[in-house]
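Protocol step 4 of 6: structure prediction from sequence.
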Amino acid sequence: MVSRFTKLAFVAPLLLLVLGLSIYPTINLYYSSFHRVVFGERSTPFVGLANFRQVLSTPDFRHSLWFSLEYTIVTTLLELALGIILAIAISRLKRGRGPIVSLLVLPMMVAPALLGIMFRLLLNDFVGPITQLLQLAGHFISPLSPQYVVPTLFLIDVVMWTPFVMLITYAGVEAVPPDMLEAAAVDGASPWQAIRYITLPTIKPVVAVAALLRAIDAFKTFDTIQVLTGGGPGTLTTTVSVYIYRAAFGLKDLGQASAAAVLLLLILAIPLGLIVKRLVELNRG
């Protein structure tokens, strides 16, 4: 019989890993948010809510908050629409589902930062293939210029994460009872009517979870934007995560960066709570 000490010995490394990589940084984050912590300074005096007041009064942070919100709403809605359409279209194929799904999820297999580098090369003003094709078509534009950079970032995010929504939605579409669809066909329902009145209502809980997951991830987007634009031109494409990075490694102010990170966590706690609630409801159902 395995003793309690032996069980603890097996679990201890994992507990230490969690403590080192999760709990300690979280505690340090909250500590720094209430103290003045600057690179190169040993003293870390308690400042209360001063860091939070400073962050909230900064125009750059407010802009990053609104841009993150705009980025989240636009990309999530587009990805949901395209993901649902692709999932339903693939589910109706009789052959080739596997290869098509595998091809569509390829962008998910690549790290976002690496994809950002790839798109930066593809969109280069002088040698980028996409820019060259646009010029051949008579459109002499720079996709990363101030005029076009925001829709370009939206489009890149849609290309990267629509497959994620499609996969989740596809699982929901496949779970729709076939007898319901067959009964609808017997009653004379058209394919569109079957989708509208049977498929879409059935997959609504799955779509809600996908929407919340994508909204959380989109709101805290960092790597792709940091690689492509660095939050620029100026602060045009600065998300909250990019603002935190700039505060920490640009201004060297860990206290202000930590306060912004805590605010980001509080904002994301709302949709995260909704996800947990929805998952509990699905399990009970």
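Step 5 (inspection) to follow. The CA atoms of residues 176 and 278 lie 19 Å apart.
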